[in-house]
Amino acid sequence: MSVSDQKSELRARLLKLRKSIKKEDWQTRSETIINELTKIPEFISSDVIHCFVSMNDRKEVNTHFLLNDLISSGKKVIVPVTDFETGELKHSELKSFKDLKENKWGVLEPDEIHPPTKEMDLILVPLLAADKDFNRLGYGKGFYDRFLNKENAVKVGLLFDEFILDQIPIENFDEKLDILITEKMILRRNNRDLGS
Asked: Which one of 31, 122, 141, 177 has the fewest beta carbons within 10 angstroms of its own beta carbon?
């Protein structure tokens, strides 16, 4: 089986598993993960944060309340905008959660793009799973790999604990993350498990 097929099979299994998380459990665990995120020095010292807008029907770690908090905190918040024609992500500063509208995939995005004027310090990356070598399993379209490849910001994956796997099949274009945060631990690529 090709690496691509292995990833597709794993993706389908993990999506099903994540969707089975009960709503209250998903919300509580999301809040714990976001709370852990806001305590790390890389987050505290960041002025410009790129944050995915979670697909809550897919039970991604919920970032909606984080986005509102970031906007009111005075940090610059950048969110991704999918360019379906080029296969690239565009990026827009977000001033209000109300500016977000659903795209054709049901992902909330700003309908007007306000390009960022400063370099990003921290990128919060959506993912299905990661492994202990900081490889990320995304949704298979490659939008984030192409974006992360060009960025020097700290790349942070937010995920539930059971989605940290021993090993993920990888291809040469897959981008590694710097930090993984679950409700039970924080892993850093340079010094492994920090506990929580």
From this structure: 141
